[in-house]
Hints:
Blueprint: H1 3-12, H2 15-21, H3 25-31, H4 43-48, H5 52-56, H6 62-81, E1 88-92, E2 105-109, E3 113-117, H7 124-132, E4 144-147, H8 154-164, E5 165-168, H9 180-190, H10 196-210, H11 226-240, E6 245-249, H12 258-267, E7 271-275, H13 279-282, E8 287-292, E9 295-301, H14 304-328
Parallel strand pairs: 3-7, 3-8, 5-6, 6-7
Antiparallel strand pairs: 1-2, 1-4, 8-9
Helix pairs in contact: 1-6, 9-10, 10-11
The protein binds adenosine-5'-diphosphate and magnesium ion.
Magnesium ion is lined by residues 124-125, 249.
Amino acid sequence: MSVKDFINYVRSKNLGDVLQDYPIAKDFLANFRLDGITKALPLPQALATVEEETLDEFGLNREGVLLKFCLFLEDFAQAEEATGTAASLTILGGFNKLKEPENINLTIASGEVVSVVGPTGSGKSRLLSDIECLAQRDTPTGRQILINGAALDELQRFEMGGKLVAQLSQNMNFVMDLTVREFLEMHAKGRLAKNTGEIVEKCFLCANELAGEKFSIDTKVTQLSGGQSRALMIADTANMSNSPVILIDEIENAGIDRRQAVELLAKSEKIIFISTHDPLLALRADKRIVIKNGGIDKVIEICEAERKSLAAIERIDHTLQMLRNRLRTGEIITEELLK
Ligand SMILES: Nc1ncnc2c1ncn2[C@@H]1O[C@H](COP(=O)(O)OP(=O)(O)O)[C@@H](O)[C@H]1O
Ligand SMILES: [Mg+2]
């Protein structure tokens, strides 16, 4: 919808109905001290009942408020639409560290999870960076990233760059000393989520489910453990991010339920790349990119046989976790435990 469409929409509906469609618009009214305005009329008529002085204070007349209101709704609608902007992402090969061509033309559709494996230093993070900056043959690898089959010019790259890709980095630096609730609320508002309260609650419950050790919504984010803050970031990204592409660089040692984390992200209809050394994560993906000497060496489709091995891997993982817990609590480890 264009601004014009929004003007027509706002004119034809009672303000109460508009607020039901766009609860975020309550914040707009509050900013202009218009919370008390009647909701039983369309905005233009409702504004007619407001004292001119109330609006004067903001240097606006009634028409000005109406226009600003419609621009606000349009901005919000656009932010929501951004979710749908990447139906596919294509990686066109460049060169590995030995300057050999990659010969790759790989297209990933939305909803797919791709793991990226390879020895340390092989170039996993580099591949994620190429995707993050939407490389156009201008990075050390010479790769090119297409969105929906098309190359991007500088302007599109700049405009999309911020919105298209969310990176879950290895270390979380919380700059402000907010509580978990304040942090989530800030994000929900910044991303213009429709129903802030509901989504904050959902994110919190989800983060707590992912985190090994539970935490309260009034905990300060700076007081969260590594695993808890990682869980919070994953829940936040899965539930609130408008970005259709998510990059996750090595989350193995984060003390979270990795299986659940991947399932949660996979459900979100986004394109997900995870660099990992963890078989549990790698085999849960749809495809696996193998990196060697800085280049994409192979792309493996996860087959039935591999997926079947997941159950056995999970048992091994459980055993290891049990051993870790016993170590932590000062117990003695014996062979008996492994039988
Ligand atoms: N195709 C390439 N050409 C040139 N340099 C590369 C290439 N791929 C990776 N590199 C460089 O190799 C180094 C190690 O890569 P990195 O992505 O950090 O490895 P990993 O994440 O697998 O440990 C980085 O400096 C990276 O920029
Ligand atoms: Mg790395």
